[in-house]
Amino acid sequence: MTTTLVIAKSVTTITVRFIQHGSIQKRCTQSRSHSELIRSHVWSLCRLQILHKKRKITLEKPLKEGCKRCIFLVILFSQFLDRYDIPLPGGRKFALFTFFPILLAVGISWLLCLTLTSVGAFPDDPAVYGYKARTDLYNKDIRDAAWFRFPYPGQFGMPSASLAGVIGMLSGVIASVVESVGDYHACALISNAPPPPVHAINRGIGMEGIGCVAAGLWGASCGYTSLSNNISAISLTKVASRLTVYFAAGLFTFSGILFKFCALCVAMPEPIVGAIMATTFGMIASIGFANLSFVKVNTSRNLFILGFAIFLGLGLPDYLNKNPGVIDTGSVLIDQILNVILGSNMFIGGLAACVLDNLVRGSPEELGNDWREQMMGSIEEDANSEGLGNRPSCYDLPFGMRWIKRTFWTSYIPFSPTFTGYRRSGHSKSSEV
């Protein structure tokens, strides 16, 4: 059963990721710059902005072309039929609708589009309603795609960088880090795990940075940081095992070499793409707001900060997008930097919320400190009762923990599981662990 759960969650993750990347690839020539592609992967403010703008990842046309059926199937399988198990021989049961809601909806919808295309139900004219639902639009790309191709660093030329691009992308980096920290806490919340400690967050951010550097060397255009859609996939499939990540990483590595499989995933009809986006983006936004459940929201302080940050994060970039010449400092370089920074929804909204939350005075209950102290206190009690010390064992490394716990200097390494900060001496911290 564990293997089945791992495969189910991994394949679901693969499906959602390919749906996103395939959609971006098919639409990247439609007024989407490189910075917009990266900003599209940051937290719920960007997700709401994507749904708001018509020239971003547009859901209006796929929704009009039949993805309502796929949306209906996803909702039916994940929210209504998840409590029913499929009986198997031997008195066993399999939670099919719990583990495969997205795959079932995608498979049924794709099969329906294939059947209707075969019988000639869809038009051949691209300008006619229903054309985008055809399954033979990318047959030539599938035939021309190589079976195997091994990527290597510098395959598209040597990487280049400009000062405006580096400074401008700092806003995207900051926004991505903020999103990743929020993803870690949201994932812990959904999977009933303790809040991630400092060393786990440091380790996660560091590995995402290494992944981005490798992606730049290999010329990969898709994001390699934490993706909020995977959090929604965890909520839908009820599977949060790390074995799922290992299995999914192997599938991604295999699919990156087998180009026929990549071309087949990109050929998914747009109604299905729009349906999955419509069902997952809403959950991403709700997961972002779920973090507010640990603070006292119904106070004038928090209501003002939340409302103002969301309004400014959505309004200012939209205003700059509709008025491209409003920023004119006399320097093309400075104009580019300001346009990139102020055009990031996540950066503007997050910066406004961060500044106001630190400047406006509030009680510990309004700041959420009471909840965190209670949570960490309960974690320490459970860990002490089991003889584990005050460290959540679920954030340990899968190997080498005995050596790490015996070596005192590892407590100075920010990503070590024994790291608790630089305020105490290494020996005292080692003894605590």
From TrEMBL:
Its subcellular locations are: Membrane
Identify the Pfam families for this entry: Xan_ur_permease
Name the source's superkingdom.
Answer: Eukaryota
The family assignment reads: Belongs to the nucleobase:cation symporter-2 (NCS2) (TC 2.A.40) family.
This chain's protein is named Solute carrier family 23 member 1
Identify the keywords attached in UniProt to this record, alphabetized.
Membrane, Transmembrane, Transmembrane helix
Which organism is this entry from?
Stichopus japonicus
| InterPro entries linked to this entry | NCS2
User: In the UniProt record, does the keyword Transmembrane helix occur?
Assistant: yes
Q: Which GO terms describe its molecular function?
A: transmembrane transporter activity
What are the record's GO terms for cellular component?
Answer: membrane
Lineage, top ranks: Eukaryota, Metazoa, Echinodermata, Eleutherozoa, Echinozoa
Coiled-coil annotation reads none
Transmembrane region(s): 94-122, 156-178, 245-269, 275-295, 302-320, 340-360
The record describes its membrane topology as:
Multi-pass membrane protein
